[in-house]
Amino acid sequence: MRILITGAAGMIGRKLTERLVSDRALAGQPIASLHLQDVVAFDPPAAEFTVTTETSDVADPGVADALGAREADVIFHLAGVVSGEAEADFAKGYRANLDGTRALFDAIRRHEATKPRLVYASSIAVYGAPFPTVIDDDFQPVPLTSYGSQKLIGELLLTDYTRRGFFDGVGLRLPTICVRPGKPNRAASGFFSSIIREPLAGKEAVLPVSRDVVHTHASPRSAVGFLLHAAALPSDAIGARRNLTLPGVAVSVDEQIEALRRAAGNAAVALIREEPDPAVAAIVDFWPQRFEAKRARALGFVAETSFDDIIRAHVEDELDG
User: Fold this and answer.
1) In the list 64, 149, 158, 204, which could disulfide-bond 104, CB 3.0-4.6 Å?
2) For 178-222, how does the pLDDT look when each residue is reduced to its tens digit (9 = 90+)?
3) Residue 147 annotated among the catalytic residues of the structure
């Protein structure tokens, strides 16, 4: 089993790499090699199989073609810029999230020796308002942000390239991944993590939206599980509709804060400072809230069932329990 991960230095990419190194197998097959790509330099992990890294931009001429020539059996395409950055820098967003994606897809198409399983990290940002109370699998994606538009175009390309037999793709509409470890990034959704992560570390956090904002979350642990499960799914089980909305925990910001209170007490909650940011609120207003995710659940995708479980996963995985 030869595996390629683009965007491997990102949080999910690093955790996925750690899991693959630990498991030493994917979809029941031993891993022979793992190639890690990202725009930032990073050190390869120690593993019982070959691990190589490269620092490159998939959208640069020749980079995607070289990646396609590696003829990986499974490709996790995680590379891209986050929602807030894509909205703030229109050209950068389309270059990273669309141009790079199409370059990679076309490179795989040109190297026909293998038909890899390609797992594409999409987003619930493909959906746009007005929303029903709960979004089912038949709700039409009409994004109202540049990031969502870029991800939806990627989904359409994935479906068509799969139909044409260039690769065997599956797109995952990830819920917001929370609690993200490390430093805040430029994702508009970053505050969902910071209002938990920072207080647990004894630091102040800023809440830029109303406490009644409702959103769907899954932990980084679940995100890695989604990716691994997608890599192993039989193609026939997925069917012609190659993009799946994944399960998660739908809670209000206020419910997040109450879960934090149960986990760490009033002192932690007191570290949250409410400071409205109209720019962030405007983006969040165009995001969906709740999902049925029936197709994904039927295919075996699982996530936490409460926000308390999401905090517990963060404490166990990032704070040594």
Assistant:
1) 64
2) 999 988 777 778 999 999 999 999 999 999 999 999 999 999 999
3) yes
